[in-house]
Design a protein that fits this description.
The structure holds three protein chains of three kinds. Chain A is mainly alpha-helical. Chain A contains eleven helices and no strands. Chain A folds into two domains: about 40 residues; about 230 residues, MetI-like fold. The radius of gyration of chain A is 23 Å and the shape is globular. Chain B is an alpha/beta fold. Helix content of chain B is about 40%, strand content about 20%. Chain B has an eight-stranded mixed beta sheet. In chain B, helix 5 packs across helix 7. The longest helix of chain B has 22 residues. Chain B is elongated. Chain C is mainly α. The longest helix of chain C is centred in the N-terminal third of the chain and has 39 residues. Chain C has two domains: about 60 residues, no CATH class; about 250 residues, Orthogonal Bundle (MetI-like fold). The chains are: A mainly alpha, B alpha/beta, C mainly alpha. At the A-C interface, helix 1, helix 3, helix 4, helix 5 and helix 6 of A face helix 3, helix 5, helix 6, helix 7 and helix 8 of C.
Chain lengths: ~280, ~350, ~325
């Protein structure tokens, strides 16, 4: 395209400006969400909120302790169930995924990403809740884990693929066996990216409500038994937000604020750890 | 040597038997799920009961009436709860092993947001049906102005709101409209989810309340408790006796009293009390039911559950008015006592014949 | 003939043992490799298994509805639980329409952010901004729903629309009265939700483009923007398309946030500002309260249709990428 230099420079500057604008526009929702949650929820955060469980509706002084602990347990279960499968599949796709089977698995992962979370919840109900005869945190963790797997598989694959081939060739030339090259050289190099991918996925499932409706069910009482129903923050927020009481609404906003802070803190801490690791490596 | 072994076994057996006696103080955990409408009162009850009986933990979660019926049928909960009674087919699916036990009453009110109008509007059943059928489209329609002569209604479109999620509230509302409007009965019918001719769908009672609050000219239906808690205006509805009644706890209980006056002692309580007879009766009211098995398998759990339900029906009713639920009329409670006493485990009744509460 | 080794002329002379030793040394696959590959393959096999089980569950439970309605399920618009008549056309239409709107908004936005982060942002700004964008993915969908109700819809309805109406109101896609809950609101929320996925992966893809490519472009006299547009983006084309597919998957299945802002109306309308409905939202709204077996079966059937849509969309994307990947180098095998 033959354009005058001035025009080309103008286009360049405009585009640069637009990308600045895009970044601002992308961050704006996050900023307004945080402002909204702080304005509506910060006032309701008190000691009770964190250490007391739900009290009877209409009474004051209740809290989210059961839900906070419940979320931690259910998400931990989801990680134990889902992350190994997801990361393993991701590495498989990156290392051995050129063949037809790899294409199939990749395709399957993309499709699974599109399955609505409530369908996964119903699936977990059929396979865990119904046979066991009761709701459980384990079923909730299983449902969330099944959501984790395809996301983590794809992001892991992308990150492992981005490691330059020269590293692989160098390791093989030095006499490393293939599996050691893959694990100790390639995957280790991609570790930071893999962890980031996992964190984004875990942060997403920590906020899921629909899959827990038919699996963990929710629990007003404080409980750490994984074989029984368990409270979870998104569930309790959803129930309280749709309830009739102002006190419930206030707690719902406070709960939403705490959930977002928890999830954001998780992301940031892990990033920092990964960065520190990089510096030592 | 053999003697010693026998001796040890005897001691072990004795300890085990003694321990069984001590098991009665171990925590009993029950799970129930179902309707969201009574969730606040049920959760209040279980928590109050827990302070009285710390070894009993009853967890109730509102997942929807249909969900409650399904979980009950699939035996994943100890009891269910529903705003709409089970159908005959559903009862057959559990081989008839269910009692419908009403617990509280609720009512549904028409709530609206008309700029410049603060008065309480009067509605009849046909007018409400006409609005939700999309036949009455403006606030100053003659049918509305005729009912409300002192109010100047604007020439503004009526924006209808309804529930997008299936709900017991919708069941009550459409049950009423089906009774008062043959047109509605034929075109739409009643259910927890229906094919709405017009309107915007909101999620949950707050969803509808929100649409009404934020849209000038909107009208929707919400549970009475939401209207009170959110301080939104709601209208009067004409009952079968011709009076325009404001929904309140008293007029809601009256609706039940009117309906149960004709109750057979063998009733299974699956009755609709919308448009009930009586002068001071609010016409859009309903029971909400607990679904409890007639025969159970675990005596400890059965005892705990039935003692709780007994307590709820007697002592628990005093908590209802604070939370804007209407308590049951006493005849209903009496009939339910008999049902509770007839529940058995392995043929033996769970509650003693002269049970009076505890 | 003296230069021909004795071992060749007289192969029997080479001892069997030394031949074995040479052969073993040349083997490139060790037992560790076999174990490694088997373990990974086993893990990877779980995905298709999961998919088959989920599909089976959907299909088996949907059969009663499929038997009753047949293909009419896809073409009719009446959704009547009382009469037992179910037509899912509005659901299908709304799912595709809202996802399309989301992509139209999110792809340029996310790409622009990725380009910003890799090319134009000052170094000290890059990590903080990247982190902030990725944190968008951490926000739970319920909270997005609340934000949609309390911030986005009032913004659209009370501030942007009164102005926009004069400019755009004549277009059929903006016709009708704007109450707030709409396909547009859902599309915007979906766009916000998928931007972090597309942006994060695109950014990694762009970062992996060798500096030599960038330098070559600049050396040929291109401006920085032109280098990005004509050299770097095409290089990372395949990976970017992969990122977009990831985002689309999220948009098609998103439930909570959509149902809180889309208006939940079983109706097909070309207008963006009218309420609509998606399959996922309908399932979430109606599943727990569905009382009749046919209602339940119809919801499962709608779920099966969504499943099919996801499969078809991914298949089309894969064909597209395969064509495109022949032109680009990096990340091509990733797709």
């Amino acid at each position: 395209m033959m354009r005058g230099r001035l025009v080309r420079q103008l286009i360049g500057s405009t585009m640069t400006g637009l990308t600045y604008g895009a970044a601002v526009l992308a961050i704006l929702p996050l900023a307004t969400i945080l402002v909204m949650l702080v304005v509506k929820g910060a006032g309701s955060l008190d000691w009770n909120f964190f250490v007391r469980s739900a009290v009877a509706p209409g009474e004051l002084g209740g809290g989210f302790a059961n839900a906070i602990v419940g979320t931690v347990i259910v998400v931990a279960l989801a990680c134990v169930i889902g992350l190994p499968i997801g990361i393993g599949t991701g590495i498989f796709l990156a290392e051995f995924g050129g063949a037809r089977f790899g294409l199939v698995v990749r395709f399957v992962a993309d499709v699974l990403n599109g399955v609505p979370s409530i369908v996964i919840g119903i699936f977990a109900w059929t396979w865990l809740v119904k046979p066991m005869g009761h709701f459980s945190a384990l079923a909730g963790g299983f449902a969330l884990g099944m959501i984790l797997v395809p996301i983590v598989a794809r992001t892991t694959e992308e990150m492992v693929r981005l490691v330059p081939n020269s590293l692989r060739e160098a390791a093989l030339a030095l006499g490393y066996q293939r599996w050691r090259t893959s694990l100790q050289v390639i995957v280790r190099t991609a570790a930071a990216g893999i962890v980031t991918g996992c964190l984004v996925a875990v942060a997403r499932v920590a906020g899921e409500t629909a899959p827990l409706l038919f699996t963990a069910l929710g629990n007003q009482f404080f409980s750490t038994r994984i074989a029984g129903p368990m409270a979870a923050m998104p569930l309790q927020i959803y129930v309280y937000a749709l309830g009739p009481y102002d006190d419930w609404h206030r707690q719902a906003w406070a709960g939403a604020l705490v959930l977002i802070v928890l999830v954001l803190a998780l992301s940031l801490i892990a990033r920092a750890v990964v960065r520190a690791k990089r510096q030592h490596a | 040597m053999t003697n010693r072994i026998i001796g040890l076994l005897a001691v072990a057996a004795g300890t085990a038997l003694a321990a069984r006696g001590a098991v009665a103080q171990e925590t009993v955990r029950l799970n129930g799920a179902g309707a969201t409408f009574p969730q606040p009162i049920y959760q209040k009850w279980v928590l109050e009961y827990h302070t009285l009986h710390p070894n009993v933990e009853i967890n109730y979660q509102g997942i929807g009436s249909g969900g409650g019926i399904r979980q009950y049928t699939d035996h994943t909960v100890d009891f269910g709860a529903s705003d709409g009674p089970m159908t005959d087919a559903q009862i057959q699916a559990v081989d008839g092993n269910v009692y419908h036990l009403p617990t509280v009453l609720g009512s549904v009110v028409p709530t609206y947001n008309i700029p410049g109008v603060t008065a309480q509007l009067k509605f009849t059943g046909e007018v409400l049906a006409g609005i939700w059928l999309g036949q009455i489209t403006k606030w100053n329609d003659s049918r509305l102005t005729a009912l409300n002569p002192g109010v100047s209604l604007p020439d503004q479109d009526i924006i209808v709101a309804h529930r997008s999620d299936g709900s017991g509230t919708t069941y009550i509302w459409t049950d009423y409209l089906s009774k008062v409007s043959p047109d509605w009965m034929q075109r739409v019918g009643k259910g927890t989810s229906v094919n709405w001719p017009v309107g915007l769908g909101g999620q949950g009672n707050p969803g509808v309340a929100n649409i009404v609050k934020q849209t000038p000219g909107a009208i929707g239906y919400v549970e009475l408790i939401y209207a009170i808690q959110n301080s939104i205006g709601y209208g009067l509805v004409q009952n079968a006796a011709g009076n325009f009644i404001q929904a309140s706890l008293a007029t809601t209980t009256n609706a039940a009293a009117g309906a149960v006056a004709h109750l057979d002692a063998n009733t299974d309580f699956r009755i609709s009390i919308t448009n009930a007879e009586g002068a001071q009766v609010y016409p859009i009211a309903s029971f909400t039911w607990l679904l409890v098995p007639k025969t159970m398998t675990d005596m400890t759990k059965a005892r705990a559950l039935l003692e709780f339900v007994w307590w709820a029906l007697h002592d628990g009713e005093k908590y209802t008015t604070d939370l804007a639920y209407a308590p049951l009329p006493s005849r209903v409670v009496q009939l339910e006592e008999e049902r509770l006493k007839s529940i058995t485990v392995d043929g033996r009744p769970v509650l003693p014949r002269n049970y009076r509460g505890h | 003939m003296a230069d021909i080794p004795a071992t060749v002329l007289q192969p029997e002379a080479a001892s069997k043992a030394s031949a074995e030793a040479r052969w073993r040394a040349l083997r490139t696959v060790s037992r560790g490799d076999v174990v490694y590959r088997s373990v990974l393959t086993a893990l990877a096999l779980l995905l298709p298994l999961l998919l088959i089980l989920i599909a089976a569950e959907l299909v088996i439970n949907a059969l009663p509805a499929a038997g009753k309605f047949g293909l009419g399920f896809l073409t009719h618009s009446t959704w009547d639980p009382v009469q037992g008549q179910f037509g899912a056309l509005p659901l299908i239409f709304g799912t595709l329409y809202s996802s399309l709107v989301a992509l139209v908004i999110a792809v340029p936005l996310a790409l622009a952010c990725a380009i910003f982060l890799t090319e134009f942002a000052p170094r000290w700004l890059r990590t903080p901004v990247a982190t902030l964008i990725e944190l968008l993915a951490a926000v739970p969908s319920v909270i997005y729903g609340l934000w949609g109700i309390f911030v986005l819809i009032p913004l659209l309805r009370d501030h942007l629309w009164p102005v926009g109406r004069h400019v755009l109101g004549w277009l059929p896609i903006f016709s009708g009265v704007f109450y707030g809950p709409s396909v547009l609101a859902a599309g915007v929320i979906l766009a916000v939700m998928i931007v972090p996925y597309i942006a994060a992966v695109s950014r990694e893809v762009l970062l992996a483009v060798p500096p030599s490519q960038r330098e070559a472009g600049l050396a040929l006299g291109a401006t920085r923007w032109e280098t990005v547009w004509s050299v770097i983006l095409p290089y990372g084309r395949a990976g970017i398309i992969g990122a977009v597919i990831l985002g689309l998957g999220r948009a098609l299945g998103e439930t909570m946030a959509v149902t809180m802002v889309i208006g939940n109306r079983h109706e097909v309308s070309a207008s963006l500002i009218q309420p609509g409905y998606t399959i996922a939202a309908a399932i979430a709204n109606e599943f727990s309260e569905a009382v009749s077996d046919m209602h339940l079966a119809s919801l499962f059937l709608a779920g099966a249709v969504l499943f099919l849509i996801t499969v078809v969309v991914n298949a089309i994307a894969r064909v597209l990428v395969w064509r495109v990947a022949r032109g680009s180098a990096i990340g091509s095998t990733a797709i």
